[in-house]
Amino acid sequence: MHAVPGWRALRTYERDWLRNDIVAGLVITALLVPQGMAYAELAGLPPVTGLYTTVTALVGYAVFGPSRRLVLGPDSAIAPLIAAAILPLVGADGDPGRAVALAATLGILVGLVCVAAGTLRLGNVAELLSKPVRVGYLNGIAIVVLVSQLPKLCGFSIEVDGTVRQFGAFVVGVLDGDTNATALVIGLGSLSVIVALRVLAPRVPGILIAVVGATLAVTLFDLTARGVQVVGSVPRGFPRPAFPVVEVSDIGPLVVAAVGIAFIALTDTVALSRALTLASDPVEPNREIIGLGAANLAAGLFQGFPVSASTSRTAVSLSSGGQSQLVGIIGAALIVVLLAFANGLLRNLPAAALAAVVIEAAVILFDLATLRWLWRVRKSEFVLCAAALVAVVVFGVLWGIAVAVGLSLGNFIRRAWRPYDAVLGRLGDRHGYHDIERNPRAVEIPGLVIYRFDAPVFFANAEHFARRILGAVEAAERPVRWVLVAAEPITDVDTTGAEVISDLLDHLDSRGIRLAFAELKGPVRDRLKSYGLYDRVGEDVFFPTLGTAVDAFLAETGITWTDPVRGRRAPKRESS
After folding, report:
1. Please, how many CA atoms are within 13 Å of residue 117, restricted to the half-sphere of its CB?
2. Using one digit for the tens of pLDDT, what is the confidence trace for 82-118?
3. d(Cα 576, Cα 563) in Å, to the nearest integer?
4. Which of 117, 212, 235, 501 is within CB 3.0–4.6 Å of 122 for a Cys-Cys bond?
5. CATH homologous superfamily for the domain 419-557
6. Is beta strand 448-453 parallel, antiparallel or unpaired with respect to 430-435?
7. Angular region, 160: left φ>0, alpha ψ -120 to 50, beta rest
8. Per-domain residue ranges for the chain?
9. Contact predicate 444/469, CB 8 Å
10. Nearest CA to 107 among 54, 147, 186, 180?
11. Structure pTM?
């Protein structure tokens, strides 16, 4: 039953876990209900769809997910992506039912993308998003989420797209007096309770207390008469499974959005799963992605929307003693009971309180500490982080994904395009060969240039590789007889690199200079053989170490040289 990890988890369940799982299930439900409804609104959907999504995601992952500790559900990082994908298709005055169908279709598409990625063993695709770019992207999402909730916190609504325009419309609304003071007090009060309890008493369910308190206030003081917006009636019961019906013309945009959402969701899920992995219970990334896909498929079939792993809900489960996916099953069952028998409890839940829940999540999502750290340790990566943030805020969350991935790949190419390289020499107080620029006391061997290139030689840097070698030859104090490439860092040579090396050989041959390699990896040597370069360079000038290469150079040229390390004229070995 490898395809159904939930069956294995059931067979290996330990009775001692039951009490802790029940307690954790009760505690986490207090977080699941308000967060699910709040993130549904953030995604541009009726709040109740957040509860449908939560239930089906928990059950779907419990059956097909490999981690016994992870909690999935609606997420603040991907809810804006869902809104960006479906709202343009729905239109300004669109039918909420059409929005639900589009979001459910998106959930199914995300599930299919994830299952396909896991089946094709693409689990490491999440590594395409570097940490600085990922932090910038998530910080941008945090700003987008925060700006989108400010009008709701103040008790009014705006009808504009784009974060910059939304913020401008919010400021105009405040200046025009659109703020509902009662709603603002509820929103700020709820936010204060959530933040205070998270800091002072993290085990206390601050979100539940804030939401229940706000709902009681609306009910007891009839605050809807003062213009406070509430969730309203929530449908009783749970929907039957069904494939959503959408227009054929909607499929194309939804597929594009699904790929982006799947990428972000699997990045978050795999990263959190790895962080939670136990030595005795390792999780394979591809199985994790399939479990994520199953959860999204289940959500889409029950009027839900795409989901991801949740750091906050997982942390609450663990801190409450949760040991297995039974925690999620209990939470799902309690939500179903709520929908079936007590749906009226949610009628007077104020929108401002839900906005407070989302704003608190956005504040947590914003990682100022890492921004400061990047600025301090590596300003070039801070610039990448800031660029990803600005792209999300200015161009939107969907384009922000493309920009973030592009920046990650571009940063890799930039580093490989102009990698660290060095001409090496010998130091009297240290074994090995060292960069002569960083170590001015290093001594070069007369007639020999030892050059190290710390990257694969490929189309973007091959010409640079050749130019740097020729530049080192020109800069040498004495006529050069050999160029020795310290090739251990070179992991590949593509066809462009082969062509450039061939031209480099022609140029060096015309000047009577031999090109040699030391410490070249076997696969790269095989690649040179396939290009015909191995025989052309000469089998006799491929050496296992720099030391044996230097010995061969001295023996062939007859050049005398005193090794500053050993104090003798022809070193026979080397430690690099």
Report:
1. 29
2. 999 999 998 756 788 999 999 999 999 999 999 999 9
3. 14
4. 117
5. STAS domain (3.30.750.24)
6. unpaired
7. beta
8. 5-411, 419-557
9. no
10. 54
11. 0.77
